[in-house]
Amino acid sequence: MHPKANTIAAMSTVTNHVHEQQNQSPDGVLLVTGDFIAASLNDHLPNYQQYVDMALRGNKTLDLCYGNVPGAYKTKRLPKLGNSDDCMVSLSPNCGSYVLDVFLVAVEVVVLVVVVVKVVLVLVLVEVVLVVVGLVVVVVVVVSVVVLVVVVVVVVVVVEVVLVLFLVELLIVVVLVVVVVVEVVVVVVEVVLVLVLVEVMIVVVVVIVVELLVVAA
């Protein structure tokens, strides 16, 4: 960038182009490099990291490199090329940081999977417990109904047996009463017959006595 250039307009133009590229490739890696002199994209692209962290001309860092992947590159100063005023800079992929990021992402994924599995297991256990409780309730209800039916049947049978025994006893009593009454009637009839016979005999004796008296007179 020329020292007398309008840095605000230049940074706005660069920022607009970067945003266009981001809209076209949201997941892409974007790098912005150049001799910025007095300009900076720090305020325009706050989510971008400036990777060059060393002086390349005296104590100044004019050649900058911005990227949208934090910690993606590590820089190394190289000798000047020909009559250039600035030293060259080498940007190498920071594999350690990338591996660490991948590892952290993998750990987060594993933790998330473990949490999901635990939640699923808890839900399955809850469903199993609910099913078991439901089965137990059904069994208890069925057993209760069966026991109630058995008790009712037993009570009915016992009541019927008691009624039959009562009727049998009543019938026996009635029979005994009838037998006693019949015996009493027989005895009474016999007594009456005896009395009648006695009276008849008395009458016969009286008649005989009367006839004898008549004959004797």
TrEMBL record:
It comes from the Eukaryota. Keywords: Membrane, Transmembrane, Transmembrane helix. The chain crosses the membrane at residues 98-126, 132-159, 166-186, 192-216. It comes from Elysia marginata. This is Calcineurin-like phosphoesterase domain-containing protein.
